[in-house]
Amino acid sequence: MLNKIIEQKKIELERLYMPENKMIERKSLYQALTHSDRKPALIAEIKKASPSKGIIRENFNHLEIAKDYKFAKVDAMSVLTDEKFFKGAIQYLIEVKEIVDVPVLRKDFIIDSRQIEQSVQIGADAILLIGEVLEPSQLYEFYQEAYEKGLECLVEVHSIDTLERILKQFSPKILGVNNRNLKTFETSLNQTQELAEYIPKDSILVSESGIHTPNDLNRVREYGAKAVLIGEAFMRLEKPSMGIRALYGEH
Ligand SMILES: O=C(O)c1ccccc1NCC(=O)[C@H](O)[C@H](O)COP(=O)(O)O
């Protein structure tokens, strides 16, 4: 599946949409996650569909979801911009950024430097760089380029091997451990447990995928996650904000 997604990205690069540059005030994902009142801090995702689950939210309205997340005072939002596999859109991110006051992460598969420039132009505050998609040296180049352009990066890994290879090159400020196995799509929070001890002390550990219940949240908190990235659990609820309150035990 990952190969299929990457092949599709290469095709899309031939007709990359590059909107007009607007003056955009960027927000820091790192600051938002370190200063959150919630422990772990929350990155809430706007996600209509996924390769593993198909359509997750039939009645999908990105702006309604963003408003509800804003009401719930999430620390940051993640917007899927991949069209083919996640039914996302660049336009969703552009419009969400206009109405929220927290950092917005562009969730996509970055394989080319032009996508970094595109992320700047559409108003993203941060981008995702996936360790299983990029060689460590290229990932580091993209990381530096992004920071030079005012974007932060969530560097995501799905295995200890990938993490080790990246850490030989550099220490990302925000490191995501994705609990989803890229071959089977199954999620296991043990992934966060196993990788947590290798995360540099100065990096923020974000546990991503497969977090649904207060028990899941407690588990990854105990494993050392300083932030979580959650999509599906909220997308299946009419009011995602209610799910956030229930998850964190807020009244
Ligand atoms: O969600 C998928 O099926 C998927 C498949 C292949 C690559 C990535 C995939 N998801 C991207 C994500 O990392 C998640 O959207 C994100 O961590 C939120 O996960 P969840 O809370 O389980 O929706």
TrEMBL record:
EC number: 4.1.1.48
Lineage of source species: Bacteria, Bacillati, Bacillota, Bacilli, Bacillales
Residue span, Indole-3-glycerol phosphate synthase domain: 8-247
Protein name: Indole-3-glycerol phosphate synthase
Keywords for this protein: Amino-acid biosynthesis, Aromatic amino acid biosynthesis, Decarboxylase, Lyase, Tryptophan biosynthesis
EC main group: lyase
Species of origin: Litchfieldia salsa
Coiled coil: none
Family stated for the protein in its record: Belongs to the TrpC family.
GO molecular function terms noted in the UniProt entry: indole-3-glycerol-phosphate synthase activity; phosphoribosylanthranilate isomerase activity
UniProt record, GO biological process: L-tryptophan biosynthetic process
Alphabetized Pfam families for the sequence: IGPS
Pathway assigned to this chain's UniProt record: Amino-acid biosynthesis; L-tryptophan biosynthesis; L-tryptophan from chorismate: step 4/5
Database matches in HAMAP family: IGPS_B
Catalyzed chemical reaction(s): 1-(2-carboxyphenylamino)-1-deoxy-D-ribulose 5-phosphate + H(+) = (1S,2R)-1-C-(indol-3-yl)glycerol 3-phosphate + CO2 + H2O
